[in-house]
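Exercise (ungraded).
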Amino acid sequence: MMVRFSVNGVARELDVEPGERLIDVLRERLGLTGTKEGCGIGVCGACTVLVDGRAQNACLVPAASLEGCAVTTIEGLSQGGLDPLQQAFIDHQAIQCGFCTPGLVLSAKALLDENPAPTEDEIRAAIKGNLCRCTGYEQVIAAIASVAGTGYRALDDEVEAPVQSPELRAGAGWPAEPPTATPVLDETKGTVPSVSSGGGEGR
Amino acid sequence: MQQDQFGVVGRSAPRVDGYDKVTGRALYTDDLNAYGQLYAGCVHSRKPHATVEVDTAAALAVPGVVKVLVEGDFPKPQSRYDWFYCTSHPRYCGDVLAVVVAETPAALADGIAAVRVRYSELPAVFTVADALAPDAPQVREEGVALGEDGVPDPTRPGNVFLASHKPLRKGDLAAGFAQADRIIERTYTTPYVEHAYLEPESVLVIPEPPDVVLVRASSQQGHGPQEFVADALQIPMSRVRAVSTTVGGSFGSKFELVGLMCGRAAVAMQATGRPIKMTYTREDSILESTKRHPFTTTIRVGATADGTLTAYESAQVENAGAYNNQAPWMNIRARVHSAGPYDIPNIRTDTFAVYTNNTVPGAFRGYSSPQVIFANEMAIDDLADELGISVVDLKRKNLLRRGSITATGQQLVHETLLVQMMEDIIRDTDYERKCRDWAGETGTWRHGAGLVTAYRGAALGGEGVDASGAMMIGMQDGSFVLRPTLMEFGQGLNTVYAQIAAEASGVALADIRVEPVDTTIMADSGLTVASRGTAQGGHAVRKAGEAIRAMIVESARMMLGARDDERIEVRDSVAWVAGQPERSVRVSDIWTMRRYTGQQLSTYQWYAARPLVNDNDTGQGEAFQTYAYGCCVAEVSVNTTTGEVVVDKVSAYHDVGHALNPGLVRGQIYGGVLMGMGFGLYEEYRLEKGVSPDTNLDIYPIATSEDAPLISIKLYESADPEGTYGAKSIAENASEMIGAACALAVKHAIRRPVSKVPVTPEYVLELLSQGEEDAR
């Protein structure tokens, strides 16, 4: 059957099969491979796209249901330069393997379009359908919160410097070349240096 | 060099692949297509042990199906990595019985469904205990029996994987136990765990006339696909070119299975003369991909009344599944860490794997350490209970310090911060007060905290040869290409490599482009594993950068007319005479000059870590060049009515040596905490007589954004000379302690002995039904 809809602002008219999914249309017919398939059953969120502004799993959307809809994929988000969310994902190291990233960005986009200043709980709820095995979500939430301007604990952590060991504090450094033979113990350095980095929660 | 002398490393540089990944431009294997490609997929065994007859007639009748390959169509059905490209004798649910090739994905799905398999079932074993029973069916001909002394007996047949046996012998065990005032013996078990990277496996194999095969694959290993394709087709490796793609996570798994898929696709390519794409569904991926090895660990440990550890004995027995390519190496690490981060004079441990008709386990982030740490830390905690002393005091007495001798007899000569890190974390988390306050709780919700201390051999160490290569090629405009031999698959290695190359060379970070691993350009330097990429692999990149810097300095000296006693500085792609910034020249001008005067524009460097010597019969020797230290405290709430466990906070303290990119280090830890929580509390790939109900991510649970606790990270830097610019490891360290800390926290909250992970609500209720344990 013929359906007319738009993808990233471009009008499309396609003859689709009854079982054809939106993800197949995007990836196979339109070459928009930024939309990823991770599970095929709508639980991982890697195929998240915006359909009329709402985040949807493209693996669950029948292509035949798209008549009159406006679809936005990750490719459509950066048409006039990076979206602030995309830049924030880069700035806050919210990306690792990147397979879930397009879906996470689009879920965050749908959230901020509807609620420009979400709480941490609202951010967590908005992306709970986007599984990520790499990042632990912290830097993703930090990126979203930075765009919203709402603040987040992981943003504070970014500026905390590592604790320096006693030898480093005493001026030792790191040689470029490692030892070429088994090093031996320097007895003068003792065994129990004091590292203590002060009280509090360490953050 | 001190930190302030570094210009590029030590900073959270943005990922070099960040723009591509955030815009959807990054191409993963399934995003690639070749002209005229066919689609291939696999028919997997649904029985754990059988011989089969495969009827392909109905599948071949499906419109669009081009070929159905069975065992006889493979030049070499068994791969060089133990398990099979295709077999008619499946030994687990997941063995591949046929490969279907079709014109379209839809025809492929119909074709796979139409393949008829007639099974003649054979006896099978599933648990380690069943496999070790005297009359158990033998899973593999190479299996041996277990002797009376708990050591494999190569003279009798059985199910023990002989090559995986790694004994550790130190001191005089009997004398050590004789000194002990208290001895406990406990058994702990851990489950199969699914890696659950978000990208399912995909390979694309393309014939390149006249006789080369091009492979693109979602492989953790750049060179792995080349090896498998040459093996499957029985052709020289020089005729196979593998070029790595963007990989959507791996955590240790995307090696053997992806290699097997490459081999199958290559045979299908040979049979059809066309490019072959094989992309797994999530169901295929979970069924056939490797899992974390389940451990059954029995520990006997003794201490004097004041808590001084005197003797430690254990058997660490893994379920090897039906095939196994990892246990012989994994168990080197499992042996080294078997007695934990403690100074114990007398140790005897045996680590080995046992064949069953279960899913094939493989490498998984930590490479045995989450399992080892869980059992070891539970035993130490149980021993402290038995002694009636605080586990913190017990640790204070026994933790490794600088100068301590490890279980393998290696003296720790570099800065060893473990004791101090533990003092920091118990102070910062108020661990001891919380334990006291929570010990008397009686309400529905109980609280508990678990403390874990760990050390981890940094990089590959004695597991293998820790070598790597790197090439740096300059263009006449001053832009550079860096080619490493180790792989980026999400962890951020290419970004850190670019930083190291920039630091070492003086070329600006923005002028360095990191290219994929290509087997026709870079030689095989081994696997990207063991958290070695930065710590040891970085040395090759550093050497490449230093070689480029030497060229820059040589040319700049000539172009600037600098005297021999004048020093040349290089930074951000500009070279100048020290103290005279007006006497400067751009690297782009230098490289233009070099280009037109016929001078070398590139460098290819190789690095191999200093060799380590370990005795295979005792495990004694220098096991790793150095160690990374970690401490973790997990705090949980447990609902005693429902068994629900909520992780409220995880504090993770890591000595990373030198954080070359602190933002990426934190990312490893945040992700590692959630993965570790799953191991401790809710992740298990269940197998019932070799069959799993866990077929997709709706049933198999991984952490969502709403499961994350408050995470408190503290990074430590120390004066350790072994790694690249002082870096140790973090990727596996980040995850290995968390499960044990969660399990300990639950133990303390409900005051019941926890002997297995995951500590599910059902298990919590089962423990609670056993009655109150005596207060400690």
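Further reading is listed at the end of the chapter. For now, observe: Chain B touches chain A through 106 residues (CB under 8 Å). The radius of gyration of chain B is 27 Å.
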